[in-house]
């Protein structure tokens, strides 16, 4: 049995052997954790919590991989797969989740979601613990697995990228980009409210969003969001009909005109109304193409990615396994 001390001090690439007959409730024998160390002031304390929960489940093998700014999780997850991991956890923000998931698509290896960021949007949409690391890890160790869709997006002429929650252009990206990291660390998701207020004054942009059965007229919009799931931080339902396993992407075009338009949009978001009007248009499709008249700041799962002019996205149904509570999946 590995002690807490050895779990804390083992190098990230070190694996500790485990008896072949030791199998956890989801069939995994080798747990890998891809962590973003910048999200934690005392990473050793976090590792101690993980080690304690794993020991309580008679599962002492934990291999740690540290994400970086240059590689937020995909390379580390691929290394974990090469090292024989049979469940890979992300422990960081939504960018870490996306990086790890990108490596796990079509592998049959489950993604475990451990909360470590401000948004934790995929976990929220799956109704998993987002404020309790121990509870989230217990889901990984004793739960089932569920197949979910992922979205793939191509910005302009760039290579295809995976997203799990949303890709967007306009006000949402500005909100993410302007959020102060110090405020996020201090108060969490309300930091986005402060930056969102600034984004309200953006002038908008000309855009056309189309699908195989929906050709939208060009219009001015404040933001266009393509979502694999629909819940934001604070419980706001941007896309109340979005599902993680329906094989579709949901599209929202937010185009309020004046104060009354913003009132209508905010009312619909707060009440999760399934409305479709000129200020807030919604539709769904397996693929969508969004073209702006000029480069607009864009975001991918909450991370600003810089100005982009065209966004082509499609759903890939059921290609990712995630761990969920034992009574689900």
Short description:
The chain has ten helices and 15 strands. The chain is α+β, with helices and mostly antiparallel strands.
Topology:
Layout: H1 4-9, E1 31-35, H2 43-56, E2 62-66, H3 74-82, E3 87-92, H4 94-104, E4 110-115, H5 121-125, H6 133-142, E5 144-155, E6 161-163, E7 166-170, H7 171-178, H8 181-187, H9 190-199, E8 205-211, E9 214-215, E10 219-221, E11 223-227, E12 249-254, H10 258-271, E13 280-285, E14 287-300, E15 303-324
Parallel strand pairs: 1-2, 1-3, 3-4
Antiparallel strand pairs: 5-6, 5-15, 7-11, 7-14, 8-9, 8-10, 8-14, 11-12, 12-13, 14-15
Question: Would you write up a description of this structure?
Answer:
- The chain is an alpha+beta fold.
- The protein has 2 domains: 4-143, Rossmann fold (3-Layer(aba) Sandwich); 152-317, Sandwich (Tumour Suppressor Smad4), CATH 2.60.200.
- Helices cover 29% and strands 33% of the residues.
- The protein has 10 helices and 15 strands.
- The strands form 2 sheets. Strands 5, 6, 7, 8, 9, 10, 11, 12, 13, 14 and 15 form an 11-stranded antiparallel sheet that branches. Strands 2-1-3-4 form a 4-stranded parallel sheet, sandwiched between helices.
- A hairpin with a 2-residue loop joins β14 and β15.
- α3 packs across α4 (94-104).
- The radius of gyration is 20 Å and the shape is elongated.
- The model is unreliable at 1-28 and 186-192 (pLDDT under 50).
């Amino acid at each position: 049995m590995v002690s807490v001390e050895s779990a804390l001090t083992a190098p990230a690439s070190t694996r500790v052997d485990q008896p072949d007959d030791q199998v956890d409730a989801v069939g995994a024998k080798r747990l890998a954790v891809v962590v973003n160390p910048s999200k934690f002031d005392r990473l050793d304390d976090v590792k101690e919590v993980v080690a304690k929960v794993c020991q309580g489940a008679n599962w002492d093998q934990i291999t740690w991989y540290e994400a970086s700014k240059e590689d937020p999780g995909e390379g580390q997850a691929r290394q974990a797969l090469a090292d024989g991991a049979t469940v890979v956890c992300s422990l960081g923000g939504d960018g870490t989740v996306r990086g790890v998931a990108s490596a796990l698509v079509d592998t049959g290896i489950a993604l475990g979601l451990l909360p470590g960021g401000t948004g934790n949007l995929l976990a929220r949409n799956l109704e998993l613990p987002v404020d309790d690391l121990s509870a989230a890890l217990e889901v990984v160790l004793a739960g089932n697995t569920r197949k979910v869709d992922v979205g793939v997006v191509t910005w302009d002429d760039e290579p295809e990228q995976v997203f799990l929650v949303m890709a967007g252009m306009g006000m949402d990206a500005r909100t993410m980009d302007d959020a102060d990291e110090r405020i996020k660390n201090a108060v969490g998701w309300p930091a986005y409210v402060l930056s969102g207020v600034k984004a309200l004054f953006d002038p908008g942009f000309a855009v056309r969003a189309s699908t195989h059965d929906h050709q939208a007229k060009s219009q001015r919009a404040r933001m266009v969001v393509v979502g694999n799931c629909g819940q934001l931080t604070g419980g706001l339902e941007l896309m109340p009909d979005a599902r993680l396993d329906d094989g579709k992407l949901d599209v929202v075009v937010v185009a309020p005109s004046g104060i009354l338009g913003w009132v209508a949009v905010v009312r619909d978001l707060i009440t999760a109304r399934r409305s479709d009007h000129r200020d807030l248009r919604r539709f769904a499709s397996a693929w969508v193409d969004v073209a702006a008249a000029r480069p607009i700041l864009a975001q991918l799962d909450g991370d600003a990615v810089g100005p982009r002019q065209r966004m082509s996205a499609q759903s890939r149904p059921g290609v990712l396994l995630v761990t969920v509570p034992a009574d689900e999946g």
